[in-house]
Automatic annotation (TrEMBL):
This is UDP-glucose 6-dehydrogenase. Its EC number is 1.1.1.22. One of its GO terms (biological process) is glycosaminoglycan biosynthetic process. The lineage of its organism: Bacteria, Pseudomonadati, Bacteroidota, Bacteroidia, Marinilabiliales. GO terms for molecular function: NAD binding; UDP-glucose 6-dehydrogenase activity. Residues 149-178 are annotated as: Disordered. It is an enzyme of class 1 (oxidoreductase).
């Protein structure tokens, strides 16, 4: 097992693979880093000389890529060569929730990870360290190892057929050895570069045998180029895999907890921001991740909790499963509550009314919209025939339409297959929602490049993402251009309520009694 790594490959050039490898290359100029992907367009975008076209928008990422790309950072579609040349291979492919078959709607779909393991097994001719960077269910390393070890069996095609390209001749050196590590990623989108430069900790889990210990040491040496050693934690491999799911479950649970209380604040006259501040000053609770909102989004929190819930059910721990599932249910409730408040306030219908959305991304400073609360709120308002006008500084028109259509596709699948094992998310599966045709969506959803155009003549404004620029808009100009009464639903509590009230707005925040 190699211990002095000079050549790294990463399979998957997405939101994690791209920025993570760019930072490794930046901080380790002595290591060649090649990021590969089957998506040709994505690789072309990573190689674009115009850095504003990088496929992932992250503050500071363009500078990192500019520094390392072409020096020791490369993006390519040649997956096999990258695997062959590397001593250490990161798997950073997507692990979405399964949308079919066993575990549909709950379990992680590991088909992409499995494909990577099979490809490594087929292509490798020398010893490799294989690093799980994707978020995976506990004990996935065992499955990866089983696939890799099968390539060492005398019956494996590579070991027996000298006709296959790259295969060793029968009397050549022994089959390669593999060591599997778990190295989950904790970066958050929007702050990825900052998080990678200065992580709270780096977690590395390895197998307990000698090869496992050598492999862990090799990865520690990579990170030690810029991360203080006391922040590099090494654990058993199962603990590392489970810690990633646990970290996301705890983070999401804090948001659902404060969002649950936001509903009670609205009934009782308390202010959720004051409550969050009051409890957050207790050092045992801490102030972070207590911002009440329209609901958490992003590609991971929901998927990882459902994955955890599925694992608990698999191991016959229904009480534990129910406990964590409630975090997701509460989040669905929060998105629904926000949409319902808009309809209720606008005299029980938004039919034909112009509702302007400020923000579509799942949080500020990213162009990622996966599982964004905006998608579900828009869907509920469209069910009531609203005219939705959207402005987001970073999200493309095509992305917004694709998000809404993807949701409809899921609804179609769920209603055509009566599955008992899928999660009954009322945002996606409820019988009260009808299927919206693509033409209906195109007719009722309008996307703008200029926020003031989106807001003109609106009956109401809904803030879905906390982009900083929204605070500094000319709110008097907006008020004058809107229909009266002019409603604002601040799903992020970012606007100055008193100032807006003074202008004449009727403003509602989350958890503001
Ligand atoms: P992504 O969808 O942005 O990127 C995954 C990439 O893998 C895609 O470009 C896809 O084309 C590529 N891919 C899939 N199969 C492939 C194959 N066989 N060969 C080559 N390329 C292949 O996903 P992401 O957001 O980067 O997430 C990746 C993993 O990291 C997931 O498990 C996720 O849970 C985890 N994670 C994500 C974040 C985040 O902020 N997005 C943070 C921490 C962990
Ligand atoms: C989250 C975790 O923070 C990362 O540590 C983890 O690596 C990542 O998931 C992952 O595994 O994918 P991310 O989803 O990028 O990162 O962004 P967060 O900042 O966690 O925000 C998630 C959602 O929660 C956003 O919609 C955000 O607006 C919302 N949120 C966050 C709140 O509503 N309130 C808060 O106080 C914080």
């Amino acid at each position: 097992i190699p211990n002095n790594v000079k050549n790294i490959a990463c399979i998957g050039a997405g939101y994690v693979g791209g920025p993570t490898m760019a930072v490794i290359a930046q901080k380790c100029p002595h290591i060649k880093v090649t990021v590969v992907d089957i998506n040709e367009q994505r690789i072309a975008d990573w190689n674009d000389t115009d850095l504003s076209k990088l496929p992932v928008y992250e503050p500071g990422l363009d500078q990192v890529v500019a520094e390392a790309r072409g020096r020791n950072l490369f993006f390519s579609t040649d997956v096999e060569s990258a695997i062959r040349e590397a001593q250490m291979i990161f798997i950073s492919v997507n692990t979405p929730t399964k949308t079919y078959g066993v575990g549909k709607g709950m379990a992680a779909d590991l088909k992409y990870v499995e494909l990577c393991a099979r490809q490594i097994a087929e292509v490798a001719t020398e010893d490799k360290i294989v690093v799980e960077k994707s978020t995976l269910p506990v004990r996935t390393a065992q499955s990866i190892r089983t696939i890799l070890d099968a390539s060492r069996s005398p019956h494996h095609p590579l070991s027996s057929s000298p006709l296959l390209p790259g295969s060793p001749s029968p009397d050549s050196s022994p089959a390669p050895r593999f060591s599997v590590l778990s190295n989950p990623e904790f970066l958050a989108e929007g702050t990825a570069v900052k998080d990678l430069h200065n992580p709270d900790r780096v977690l590395i889990g390895g197998e307990e045998d000698e090869d496992g210990q050598r492999a862990m040491e090799a990865l520690v040496e990579v990170y030690a180029n810029w991360v203080p050693r006391e922040r590099i934690l090494t654990t058993r491999i199962w603990s590392s895999e489970l810690s990633k799911l646990t970290a996301n479950a705890f983070l999401a649970q804090r948001i659902s907890s404060i969002n649950a209380l936001s509903a009670l604040c609205e009934k009782t006259g308390a202010d959720v921001d004051e409550v969050a501040h009051a409890i957050g000053t207790d050092t045992r609770i801490g102030p972070k991740f207590l911002k009440s909102s329209v609901g958490f989004g992003g590609s991971c929190f929901q998927k990882d909790i459902l994955n955890l819930v599925y694992l608990c059910r698999h191991f016959n721990l229904p009480e534990v499963a129910d406990y964590w599932e409630q975090v997701v249910k509460l989040n669905d409730y929060q998105k629904h509550r926000f949409a319902k408040q808009i309809i209720d306030t606008l005299f029980n219908t938004v039919s034909g009314k112009k509702i302007a959305f400020l923000g579509w991304a799942f949080k500020k400073d990213t162009n990622d919209t996966r599982e964004s609360a905006a998608i579900y709120v828009a869907d509920e308002l469209l069910q009531d025939h609203a005219e939705i006008h959207i402005y987001d500084p970073k999200v493309s028109k095509e992305r917004i339409y694709a998000d809404l259509e993807y949701l409809q596709e899921h609804r179609r699948e769920n209603s055509s297959r009566n599955s008992d094992n899928s999660r009954n998310s009322h945002s996606c599966n409820s019988s009260q929602f009808v299927q919206l045709e693509s033409s209906f969506i195109k007719d009722h959803v309008h996307i703008h490049d200029d926020p003031y155009n989106a807001l003109e003549n609106a009956h109401a404004i809904a803030i879905l993402t906390e982009w900083d620029e929204f605070r500094s808009y000319d709110w008097l100009r907006i008020y004058e251009a809107m229909r009266k009464p002019a409603f604002v639903f601040d799903g992020r509590n970012i606007l100055n309520k008193e100032e807006l009230k003074e202008i004449g707005f009727n403003i509602k925040g989350i958890g503001k009694g």
